[in-house]
Design brief:
Blueprint lengths: L7 E3 L5 E6 L12 E6 L5 E6 L12 H4 L1 H5 L9 E2 L11 E2 L2 H19 L4 E5 L5 H12 L5 E3 L8 H11 L5 E2 L19 E5 L3 H4 L8 H7 L3 E5 L13 E3 L6 H14 L5 H7 E2 L1 H8 L4 H8 L3 H13 L3 E5 L1 H4 L4 H14 L9 E2 L8 H7 L5 H5 L8 H6 L5 H10 L7 E5 L12 H8 L4 E6 L4 H6 L2 E4 L8 E3 L10 E4 L11 H12 L9 H13 L3 H7 L1 E2 L28 E2 L3 H5 L27 E5 L15 H6 L4 E4 L1 H6 L7 E5 L4 E8 L7 E4 L44 E8 L8 H4 L14
Parallel strand pairs: 7-8, 7-16, 10-11, 10-14, 11-12, 13-22, 16-17, 17-18, 23-27, 24-26
Antiparallel strand pairs: 1-2, 2-3, 3-4, 5-6, 5-18, 9-15, 19-20, 20-21, 23-28, 24-27, 25-26, 25-28
Helix pairs in contact: 4-21, 5-14, 8-11, 8-12, 8-14, 11-12, 18-19
Bound molecules: ligand MGD (2 copies) and molybdenum atom.
Length: about 775
């Protein structure tokens, strides 16, 4: 279908073609691939193709989206609401019910629990930025009216830290690279300038397409001459293309490297004096701090050779414009807040903020933002004040309308300061090795609830363990919706998601929310249906309706550069940034107010060989985890034959020297273990990792295995997050060491096999040796 007003077309053979943008499920971040669905006369999805007329993707799709038909039509899809007797939790004893019965059971239980224990005794558990995150906060606040929305990822260590730092330091939304996505004419836009370099800092966007960044935009930019610099402990495809560059650092030491680079740039006077003088606060203090990070020291900590640090600092200081794509690894280390602050400081002092080809500054207004904020008003103020973790970690509670994840686990465990009686799982398979750390602690603690609901497309270990009611979820092609890159924190465009087909009685997150909202708290839910809801929201923000967006397919609003000069960032209408000082806060007045060092620093992670030299012999290696693979989204896609053919097993990357020292051959099963727990993955022997580092995949469970307790689809066998400690967070409550814990490895006879005699001779520390019960 050529790009036109027509988004739905009946073909001569009786099939229908529907143009759309995708979000989830299946899990994706809000990048809104442009697609065309082909549907037969009965409304079954037959085919998915890339929409060549889409201004950003031009017909390109990732392999998960190319496999959408297999996902949608899979025989294991949940198609109807189901219930299970409370005493049958953990057993595969589900009974089909109607939506009316499901609503009745849910409303009765919610009402009873609220009367007995208060709304705060309900927790909504959410996951990463699938479409659900737009609606699960209002589900919690304005339908169930609980203050306790929990994304159980330790230290909120995904996106939250980066957003918070952008907010505190720049007074802006998420900082993204400029890939000309805002403009319909893209790279040809006369205002756009090509970046000389993009640093992929702890980010691998080709596989991840994270948050609002189309990974292949980097390929488009490389073709036009941009150099990609990867700061990564692993050598990736991008990092070894000709002309690109890899800085291979020790996991978890990014803050130190960034400070070292600042030191080079500042001491060699390679910064943008004009921008620093007019628009930065605290430069002298930053200069002093950076001077504490000479290259010799930085090299020792980060393992990056001294000359590379100097060369990179000089390169950044002398090439303009340049951009930094900061990634998940920045959040997933205990010094993440400091790393993020130092990285933004590099972009700021080199004059790369809000300029063409630089780092874009997210606009303050965001689509659906006001509606989501207003939803909080539906929570009783006393309950809001008692949001879990708000007292202990006020900075996190201020920045995010959520509980503190690690403390929430403890509250489930202890019933202090109050008891939790109900869970609603909304886009998280919490005990699988994705969202939570020390998942066995979460697993035991969550058993205590009286009532649990889950909405999903497939059964999974978390639902099998706890849910009393499960609601069947519509896939991206089965509902209307709007895709908003960066959830509105820097929305490059809006995409129309058009319903093309239906299976069973599945409903979308928004449909479920509107129907539940009307039943529990009708005054907050005046919308007839999703289209009516979008019409009202779009009219308010943009002056057009959902049907108009469907016709446009993708709405690109344009971008104004140097907003700080044009008085477009501050609510008081003054020029400058929307911070306390009106400037980029290299020295953060907000951190200071919350008792954190206002300047970036590097502190050795709590559990490392440097902090614990006595454990170095037992756990000589560093494990980083979770680089994305193309054929899965966290714990999703494990049950899809085609995706499983691409990635049949979890894989641990081990350097050849390390493998040899441990008697491990390619394809052997390996147990990776430390003082917190263990997990099994298959060895891939490769020199993309350094001899002292191993890299393990996350999100593995085995849908083909026995579903019931205690096996729960084998959820404990390759549960890599068992090795990551709970509550190992930074001072403000953010960040966790998903990408850097000490460990050791040994060969085992299989996923369930024995430890060979020869290997058992190696000393293994008991799980409880350090007082860690997991
Ligand atoms: N296919 C697929 N796509 C996904 C997801 C998925 O599960 N599958 N998940 C989505 C989610 S929730 C997110 S948050 C994004 C994340 O997407 P990204 O922000 O791109 O982050 P990662 O893919 O985790 O990879 C980051 C890179 O960091 C490197 N790394 C590891 N440790 C360190 C370290 O200590 N320092 C530095 N500098 N680098 C390190 C890894 O080797 C890897 O190459 O992806 C999203 N997209
Ligand atoms: N070791 C290690 N662990 C990690 C990471 C890592 O790098 N290393 N990455 C972490 C990161 S960044 C994140 S964000 C977390 C992610 O963790 P989660 O977001 O909790 O991901 P999953 O556990 O896969 O659970 C997602 C569930 O939601 C369902 N689902 C999919 N789409 C939708 C939707 O639109 N609506 C609803 N209601 N449900 C949907 C899926 O079928 C699945 O069962 O994992 C973290 N875990
Ligand atoms: Mo994430």
């Amino acid at each position: 279908m050529a790009h036109s007003d027509e988004w739905k077309h009946v073909n001569e053979d009786g099939t229908t073609t529907v143009r759309s943008c995708t979000w989830s499920p299946p899990g994706e971040h809000p990048i809104g691939w442009g697609v065309e669905y082909t549907v037969d006369a009965e409304g079954n999805l037959l085919k998915v193709e890339g929409d060549e007329s889409h201004p950003i993707y031009g017909g390109r799709l990732n392999c998960k989206m190319l496999d959408l038909v297999e996902y949608v039509n899979h025989p294991d899809r949940l198609l109807y609401p189901m219930k299970r007797a409370h005493e049958d939790r953990g057993k595969d004893k589900w009974e089909r019910i109607t939506w009316d019965e499901a609503w009745d059971i849910i409303v009765t239980n919610v009402t009873e629990i609220k009367e007995k224990w208060g709304a705060r005794s309900i927790v909504v558990h959410g996951g990463t930025g699938r479409e659900a995150v737009m609606y699960s906060y209002p589900l919690c606040f304005a339908a169930l009216q609980s203050p306790n929305y929990c994304n159980s990822i330790s230290g909120w260590a995904c996106y939250g830290p980066r957003c918070t730092v952008a907010d505190f330091i720049l007074g802006a939304g998420y900082s993204e690279i400029d890939y000309a996505g805002f403009f319909p004419d893209r790279f040809d836009n006369p205002e756009y300038v090509q970046a000389e370099y993009v640093i992929c800092w702890g980010k691998a966007p080709l596989a991840s397409d994270p948050d609002g960044l189309h990974g292949h935009a980097l390929i488009d930019m490389m073709k036009r001459g941009t150099k990609i610099i990867c700061i990564d402990p692993r050598i990736t495809w991008l990092g070894c293309r000709e002309g690109n560059w890899t800085i291979q650092l020790k996991p978890g030491t990014d803050a130190c490297l960034a400070l070292g680079l600042l030191n080079v740039i500042i001491s060699e006077e390679l910064y943008d004096h004009d921008f620093v003088e007019n628009w930065c606060f605290g430069f002298d203090e930053l200069k002093e701090r950076a001077a504490e990070y000479p290259v010799e020291y930085v090299s020792e900590v980060t393992w990056v050779p001294e000359e590379q640090i100097v060369e990179l600092g000089r390169y950044i200081g002398t090439h303009h414009p340049g951009s930094i794509a900061w990634g998940l690894a920045v959040d997933q280390q205990t010094n993440g807040i400091q790393a993020a602050q130092a990285i933004l400081s590099i972009a700021a002092i080199t004059g790369n903020l809000d300029v063409p080809g630089g780092v874009t500054v997210g606009a303050p207004n965001s689509f659906l933002g006001k509606w989501r904020m207003d939803a909080r008003q539906e929570v009783d103020p006393d309950d809001w004040a008692q949001r879990l973790g708000a007292e202990e970690y006020p900075a996190l509670a201020y920045a995010h309308a959520t509980t503190h994840p690690d403390l929430t686990c403890e509250v489930f465990e202890t019933g202090e300061p109050y008891e939790i009686h109900m869970s609603w799982f909304n886009s998280t398979n919490l005990i699988s090795p994705s969202n939570s750390v020390q998942p066995k602690r979460w697993y035991e603690a969550l058993k205590r609830t009286d009532f649990a609901v889950a909405t999903d497309c497939f059964m999974n270990p978390t639902i099998m363990a706890y849910a009393d009611i499960v609601l069947p979820l519509a896939t991206t092609n089965e509902h209307d919706g709007i895709v908003i890159p960066h959830f509105g924190r820097n929305s490059i465009f809006l995409g129309a998601m058009n319903k093309a087909s239906q299976r069973g009685e599945c409903k979308s997150d928004l449909e479920i929310l509107l129907e539940l909202g009307k039943r529990l708290n009708p005054k907050a839910w005046p919308y007839k249906d999703p289209v009516d809801f979008f019409d009202q929201q779009l009219e308010e923000s943009y002056g057009f309706k959902f049907e108009d967006l469907r016709k446009m397919g993708c709405y690109q609003p344009g971008y104004t550069y140097k907003k700080y000069e044009k008085a477009l960032l501050r609510p008081d209408g003054e020029p400058g940034f929307n911070t306390v000082t009106g400037k980029v806060e290299l020295y953060s007045t907000v951190y200071e107010a919350w008792g954190e060092d206002p300047l970036p620093y590097y502190e050795e992670p709590k559990w490392s060989q440097v902090s614990h030299p006595e454990l170095k012999t037992q756990f000589p290696l560093i494990m980083t985890t979770g680089a994305r693979d193309y054929a899965s989204f966290h714990s999703e896609h494990r049950g899809l034959p085609t995706m499983r053919e691409v990635t049949p097993w979890p894989v641990i990357e081990i350097h050849p020297e390390t493998a040899e020292a441990h008697g491990i051959l390619e394809g052997d099963w390996v147990e990776v273990y430390n003082q917190f727990g263990s997990a099994r993955e298959k060895a891939h022997i490769t020199d993309v990792v350094e001899p002292r580092v191993v890299h393990a995949r996350h999100g593995w469970w085995y849908p083909e295995q026995n579903a019931e307790e205690p096996n729960l689809y084998g959820v404990w066998k390759s549960n890599i997050n068992s090795l990551i400690p709970l509550k190992c967070v930074g001072k403000l409550g953010f960040c966790a060491p998903y990408k850097g814990v000490m460990c050791n490895i040994r060969r085992v006879e299989g996923l369930d096999g024995d430890i060979p005699e020869s290997v058992a001779a190696f000393d293994r520390i008991g799980d409880t040796a350090l007082g860690n019960e997991n």
